[in-house]
């Protein structure tokens, strides 16, 4: 395992190589960022957002947390979303989970792990809601499907926020997508649950003009 000092040396090597490959790269990067994408992903170190979709730094705005959650009480996530939508004017927000996610695995067991139990409580509730459809699956199949259901739920949660609703009401081009990454292949599975406008969600979550 490299030491912190070696990491700093690695940084110098990387910066030199990057500049040689693309002269002026860091001057351009230090300018105003104008990404078209926001990525909400898991904190897992094996899922580097820009690398697995072939984008350079500055081309994707990233928020990560355990099991790629969008909680309506999480000001960290919501502040990032609002900045991405209102300031950066991103056009796509991609919620990306990954198979064999430790947060999902923890949520579907009967064990308890401390404070993280509060964070993954929504996944556990989601698991309970779908248990009849999951109970006859193998452990791997159950984990994979629950990972997908978790992403679908977070796409739903995100689309219900006032941040997203306000953008759609203003006619902004903004889409929300749900993907799952497989560590063993490096490939992304599109869950085909994209939402593009207020009409894609239940009426109860939309704004209704006052009489």
Q: Considering DSSP H and I runs of 4 or more, what fraction of the residues is helical?
A: 40-55%
Please describe the biggest sheet, giving its number of strands, its sense, and whether it closes into a barrel: 5 strands, mixed
As an assembly, this protein is single chain
Large-scale geometry: globular
* Mean pLDDT across all amino acids: 93
Give the second-level CATH assignment, the architecture of the largest domain: 3-Layer(aba) Sandwich
Question: Class of the largest domain, according to the CATH hierarchy?
Answer: Alpha Beta
- Strand coverage percent: 5-15%
- Overall structural class, as computed from helix and strand content, comes to alpha/beta
Strand order of the largest sheet: 2-1-3-4-5
Number of strands: 5
Number of folding domains? 2
> SSE order, as H and E?
HHEHEHEHHHHHHEE
The number of distinct helices, counting runs of at least 4 residues, comes to: 10
Architecture overview:
This protein has 211 residues and is α/β, with parallel strands linked by helices. The protein has 2 domains: 31 residues, no CATH class; 173 residues, 3-Layer(aba) Sandwich (Beta-carbonic Anhydrase, Chain A), CATH 3.40.1050.10. 44% of the residues lie in helices and 15% in strands. It has 10 helices and 5 strands; from the N terminus they run ααβαβαβααααααββ. The termini are far apart. 26% of the residues are buried. The model has no long low-confidence stretch (mean pLDDT 93).
């Amino acid at each position: 395992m490299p030491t912190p000092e070696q990491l700093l040396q690695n940084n110098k090597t990387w910066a030199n190589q990057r500049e040689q490959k693309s002269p002026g790269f860091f001057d351009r990067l230090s300018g105003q960022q104008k990404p078209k994408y926001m990525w909400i992903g898991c904190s897992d170190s094996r899922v580097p957002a820009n690398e697995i979709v072939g984008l350079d730094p500055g081309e994707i705005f990233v928020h990560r947390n355990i099991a790629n959650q969008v909680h309506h009480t999480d000001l960290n996530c919501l502040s990032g979303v609002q900045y991405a939508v209102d300031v950066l004017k991103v056009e796509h927000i991609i919620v990306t989970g990954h198979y064999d996610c430790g947060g999902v695995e923890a949520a579907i067991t009967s064990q308890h792990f401390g404070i993280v139990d509060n964070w993954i409580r929504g996944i556990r509730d989601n698991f309970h809601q779908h248990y009849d459809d999951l109970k006859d699956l193998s452990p791997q199949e159950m984990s994979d499907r629950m990972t997908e259901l978790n992403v679908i739920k977070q796409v739903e949660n995100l689309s219900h926020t006032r941040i997203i609703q306000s953008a759609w009401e203003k006619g902004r081009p903004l889409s929300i997508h749900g993907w799952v990454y497989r560590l063993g292949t490096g490939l992304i599975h599109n869950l085909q649950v994209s939402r593009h406008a207020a009409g894609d969600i239940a009426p109860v979550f939309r704004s209704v003009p006052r009489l």
